[in-house]
Amino acid sequence: MQAQVRDVARLAGVSSGTVSNALNHPEKVSPATRERVQQAIAELGFVPNIAARQLRRGTNDSIGMIVLDIANPFFTAVARGVEERLSGVGRPLVMAHSGQDHEREKAYLDLFAEQRLSGVLVTPVGQVLDRLRRLRDRGTAIVVVDRKTGAREFSSVSVDDTLGGTLATQHLLDVGRRRIAFLGGPERLTQIKHRLGAARRAVEQHGSGEVWHVDSPTLDVEAGRVGAAALLDLPPGRRPDAIFAANDLVALGVLQTLTLAGVRVPDDIAIVGYDDNEFAAAAAIPLTSVRQPAVEMGAAATGRLLEVIEDPHAKVEHIVLSPELVVRRSTVA
Amino acid sequence: MQAQVRDVARLAGVSSGTVSNALNHPEKVSPATRERVQQAIAELGFVPNIAARQLRRGTNDSIGMIVLDIANPFFTAVARGVEERLSGVGRPLVMAHSGQDHEREKAYLDLFAEQRLSGVLVTPVGQVLDRLRRLRDRGTAIVVVDRKTGAREFSSVSVDDTLGGTLATQHLLDVGRRRIAFLGGPERLTQIKHRLGAARRAVEQHGSGEVWHVDSPTLDVEAGRVGAAALLDLPPGRRPDAIFAANDLVALGVLQTLTLAGVRVPDDIAIVGYDDNEFAAAAAIPLTSVRQPAVEMGAAATGRLLEVIEDPHAKVEHIVLSPELVVRRSTVA
DNA sequence: TGAACCGATTGAATCGTTTCAATGTGAGTG
DNA sequence: CACTCACATTGAAACGATTCAATCGGTTCA
């Protein structure tokens, strides 16, 4: 029913091998024949069946990316970096969305394994070491983005969360804040652990002040709203004078709730966000935030991935980028 | 080198046909055998080669989505709707990003055609009717999202842009604005055409006032900044007293630039955005915006797509959803 | 003139799974 | 006891492209 090489071959008056060559090794076919084949392809609307091609070739040029949270501008910025690095390389990028859901993450890793992709960029949610190993053993290159895997057996690109946590906290201390609520979770994320740990250490080192953790199941605007509401429920004397939000989405939620409640930012409570996404600067009160080089991270991870694809035995490398503090009105009047 | 059915079969002491049945038609295999096969699969780390499966089966369960602009929360919200509708259906969603680039759009449509996906959701950028037809002729179901194709031969789900344009403009007129700059482009997008056209008609019908178009090559925050700067360059008497931004990203850029320039919003210039994305309410001055039911659109498009997959001859249907105006501080003090 | 060589083309084998007609094995029935 | 019938299993064919050794036809050169 659907045209295949056979049909194209017949119409062009050549063999199927020649059609294939015209498609994949044009230099092996005389210009005249090539032309006839092209004509026949156009006439029949022939589209090669990639399954057959891939089965025979044994490889798939595509690169897969499992995005942790597509609604978070930070991750879409990472994706932008990936695409930029990939442009002109001739490898399509297919994306899947885990949405922090471990089951979906597993399902997509399995799908990518079945598809025998050349490479996969992943920001793992749960325990997927076994799947990543299987993927690698099947010949798929892997680079971990925005994480370091426990076993460190895969190359990774991440941003120094400890430094980020220190920068934010140090800044809050510098502007005179002492009661800092760290808002966001879940706590098991290494991100959270490192940023929070650094905050605690910074305060400790400073000698005065305190940090406490307000957990949340997710890291979105709603989590910020809920967390801020919980803090407002505290008796005035026990409220924080600063909130360190685990990312900018949370910070925006916090800002919204505080503003609605008549709390003055930064006078009553200062807010520091994390990521410095595109919306941080456009917020009601422009957010002080820890800028993560998201685009650069995506590009670096992709560069590394392409190297691993070329040489599967390339040695494992962990690239760690540095964040920087961007001060805006949410912490200084 | 890599385990295949043959190897699993040998280890489990059965034939390859039985292994395949254990995988795809478990009810045809006795529990004991099924168990042995599972064991062998686990032991060998066997992952079926999807290319071979697909070649034989002739179908691919996956659904593809070509996202127009992954950095725009509106489209990620649409994607969320798609995922929600798809959850539990057992069809993986793979996404590709055209980023408004017609070449990339074509490349991904070709990739999806080669992959023989079950269905594709697409928000077309350029002239792709021929490719969509070819895709359909190859047996891939297609639903157009947030557009109606010229020829109307594909089912679509969109939002009434004329109504949206009318709502926004009527509101601006109601709050006493008369000089309205419509900011955003490119003009060839039907979106833009309809919203702008409706704005012009609303003003005309009202009897007084004027609307003019400030074009932009893209619809992002930067476009808003640039457009607003251009408007500020006008002599005070020729400046608008309201800006109708083609989407919220543009509106945020406008807001940023106006605020930095000391223009009072809404006193000097009112701003209406479009989409009512998650960040509109959290903006420096909360944005009045035309809310588009993005999640619902994604869900509806997916529902339609699943129907077309079931019955390729299902009749073409155009679902048009209605936007609604959300009034916030950027238009009323 | 014949051998050597060259580029273009052919066509059968191949990739790894699924499918399906055929076969085997008991259990149940008259 | 012979005969069905149901169920489990087998094994070879098939999916549609690519590959590669073999062939073809023509040119060049000794």
TrEMBL record, chains A, B:
Residues 3-57 form the HTH lacI-type domain. CDD domains: HTH_LacI. Keywords: DNA-binding, Transcription, Transcription regulation. Signal peptide: none annotated. GO terms for molecular function: DNA-binding transcription factor activity; transcription cis-regulatory region binding. Gene3D superfamilies: 3.40.50.2300, lambda repressor-like DNA-binding domains. Pfam families: LacI, Peripla_BP_3. Transmembrane segments: none annotated. The keyword GTP-binding does not apply. This is LacI family transcriptional regulator.
